[in-house]
């Protein structure tokens, strides 16, 4: 399923699809800031008591920061700066919306950060390609560890999906999901495990986060929509793993040396 033929056919398109999925939650949230300007401003003002001016500045920063970052990533310009900017947005929202104390949302935000780390690693390798032909000792360590960190953070997303009940389906899902998470984290059979997680996560996302079935005026519509696009971003990170491989710090790489 994830053999050489599949990768050869999708090699040209996979990184583009991965980047689009990865930035989808920032794109959706940036647009949300525009359409819900008043509600978002009032929420920040009420929560922090910071006044309309600071609350408006927060919403504006979120709107411009996320949309600008998305445009730069998709156009392949200043990708590293865009990633750092989006890291900043994640940190800002984690504090502003008190996500730090909600374990599920915190783990999902960390998984999102993992996707950005992989994007940063990809942009570093593209930057180094201009020196093709110049002898180097090994692939740069920062990039290897970024890929390792990205993989480990991505699997946090799946820990939020584990269900602790006694039904056969839940137990099976937990066992298979945990096994795949471990494979991606340690970098063993990485591309196959990551692609399997992509298929599984996409199916769960469409089934559980079907925001289009809920009327727009209901709060659940926005909640599911946010969840849906955040999950799509993690799928984008996993697709980057499929496209780029696990990197130097992985079992797959070590096998080549044995």
TrEMBL record:
One cellular-component annotation, GO: endoplasmic reticulum-Golgi intermediate compartment membrane
GO BP terms: Golgi organization; protein transport
Primary residence: endoplasmic reticulum
Transmembrane segments: 52-74, 81-100, 168-188, 195-216, 228-249
Subcellular locations according to the entry: Endoplasmic reticulum membrane; Endoplasmic reticulum-Golgi intermediate compartment membrane; Golgi apparatus membrane
InterPro entries (alphabetical): Surf1/Surf4, Surf4
Pfam families found in the cross-reference section: SURF4
Keywords: Endoplasmic reticulum, Golgi apparatus, Membrane, Protein transport, Transmembrane, Transmembrane helix, Transport
Membrane topology: Multi-pass membrane protein
Similarity-based family: Belongs to the SURF4 family.
Name of the featured protein: Surfeit locus protein 4
Source organism of the structure: Crocuta crocuta (Spotted hyena)
Gene encoding the protein: Surf4
